[in-house]
Amino acid sequence: MPQNLPAYDLDASDLSLRTAYDTCLWLESFSAWGTFATDIEHERSHAIMVETDFPTVAARVLGYGLRFAHSQAGPSALIQEINECNRDLELLAGLAHLYVFGLIQVFRNPKGPTPDISPSQSPKPSSQLAAQDAEHLLRKTSLTAKELRKLTLLRENNCCVFTGARDRASIDINMLQADPAMSRMEMVHIISQYSSEAIGRVTPAARAKFDWARTADAVIERFGGLSNRALLDDQGLNSPLNAFMTTSDPHIAFDQLDMWLTPAKTSNGDLMANTYDVLASDPEVIPAPHPELIAVHAACARVAHMSGAAEYLEELCRETDAISVMTEPNAANELAQSLKALQLHCR
Questions:
Q1: What domain of life does the native source organism fall in (predicted)?
Q2: What does the domain layout of the chain look like in residue ranges?
Q3: Which runs of consecutive H residues, i.e. helices, occur in the chain?
Q4: Higher pLDDT, residue 150 or 31
């Protein structure tokens, strides 16, 4: 649920951080972009203001971004970007737009779980043969979804990483009858959307100011302090570093940013290193999901829900789905009415 930005309680000695956060608090205090009508009535600037919804959402995206950035580079870059806007409303809206559509949306799968690959009905290979198959697949420069599923199932020992439930497709029928709790495993991508495409609907002023943010890859690198393109290499989304296996309910929650992962800690608050179980004949054969990707996903999930960006993206997705029904009878009249309403809304 969206929450107001808390009063400044960060590093009291960091004046740049304080200035940037104060700008976010200032922006959050206004209820609508119309409050600044004289400032936003520039050519093509109004569309981005409507796209980014209310100033409160934009302010909280930036403010919570400062609070939850995973890497040291993340808040440092965002501090500089906010301060260099000099409280220019179009630039602040544009910056928030880039972080919503170039960062949060990349980790959010609006359509739910990715359609999975049907498991093979052929006899299940022995663990030795499966490990040999994994070694062969890992030598490939790119993987299909089916090949990635083989690797992740082997790595997870055919179990859900959250519930421990066994994959029903990987066992024989006698075991399934003995343990009805077994479930169908689904493959989860940490980054679920392609990030190499250009971020659209950015005003000329915002584009000129943030020319570095041409693609989501650039925003992820800026905020997360890592290059996902270099990390995932030619395998792209279908890399073992970007995937794990789980049952349907956790998959949906993770894709919708309703659930995220944080480092495990001992009773004394110390981080527990290497707590992800990797099962294979050689623990180094199949790499575990990359902790940096998991951490950036967690930061995006927290920012999305506390800022209201998650609700905004959900509504945007719902509106997009509604357009698909325009092939129904009377579609032309409904489309005309919708466009008229949109024109009135954007004036």
A1: Eukaryota
A2: 15-110+194-227+298-346, 127-193+231-289
A3: 15-28, 37-40, 45-51, 55-68, 73-84, 89-99, 105-107, 127-138, 145-155, 173-178, 204-209, 216-224, 228-232, 248-255, 291-307, 309-323, 331-346
A4: 150
